[in-house]
Design a protein that fits this description.
The structure is a single chain. By secondary structure, the protein is α/β, with parallel strands linked by helices. It has a single domain, classed as Response regulator (Rossmann fold), CATH 3.40.50.2300. It contains five helices and four strands. It has a four-stranded parallel β-sheet. Helix 1 links the parallel strand 1 and strand 2. The longest helix has 26 residues. Pfam families: LMWPc. InterPro entries: LMW_PTPase, Ptyr_pPase, Ptyr_pPase_sf, Tyr_phospatase_low_mol_wt. Belongs to the low molecular weight phosphotyrosine protein phosphatase family.
Length: 163
């Protein structure tokens, strides 16, 4: 399932609109992977289950919160998940149970990589990354905290897979 030609482990982060949580996860995970010398072994992407924001940049609040932590997500653009993504990615990691249900519908019809909740890789005790879209700036900070912690657990799992 990974990109056999490149031998890379592929990771897809999924939220609702692909403008807050999943691009933040892509950016944080990419930065942590680079810091740990694993970036060249990975293919990282993000998408949304909905189609409202296709082609748009991440939410300005998400971009600003990430930037305060030294993570640049400004160049990312929203896209909608496709059935082929479940064949192309080794990890399909969703932000909440609603996203999980939507992606499971695709998976049940087409097979491929079974989607999982991203925070399964974390130790925070949270099951879901809350959607900060309708809240204040502190919601974006909480999202980044949860994503950072789960990203560390995911990288640990991938390191074991690559060993």
């Amino acid at each position: 399932m990974s990109d056999a030609a490149s031998g890379k482990v592929s990771v897809l982060f999924v939220c609702l609109g692909n403008i807050c949580r999943s691009p933040s996860a892509e950016g944080v995970f990419r930065q942590l992977a680079a810091e740990q010398g694993l970036l060249e072994s990975l293919h990282i992407d993000s998408c949304g289950t909905g189609n409202w924001h296709i082609g748009k940049a991440p939410d300005a609040r998400a971009t600003a919160a990430a930037e305060r932590r030294g993570v640049d997500i400004a160049e990312l653009r929203a896209r909608q998940i496709q059935a082929e993504d479940l064949d192309r990615f080794d990890y399909v990691l969703v932000m909440d149970r609603s996203n999980l249900a939507d992606v499971r519908d695709i998976w049940n019809q087409n097979g491929g990589t079974e989607p999982r909740l991203f925070l399964e890789f974390g130790r925070s005790g949270h099951a879901e990354v809350p959607d900060p879209y309708y809240g204040g700036e502190d919601g974006f900070e909480q999202v980044l905290d949860l994503i950072h912690e789960a990203s560390e657990g995911l990288l640990e799992s991938i390191r074991e897979r690559l060993a």
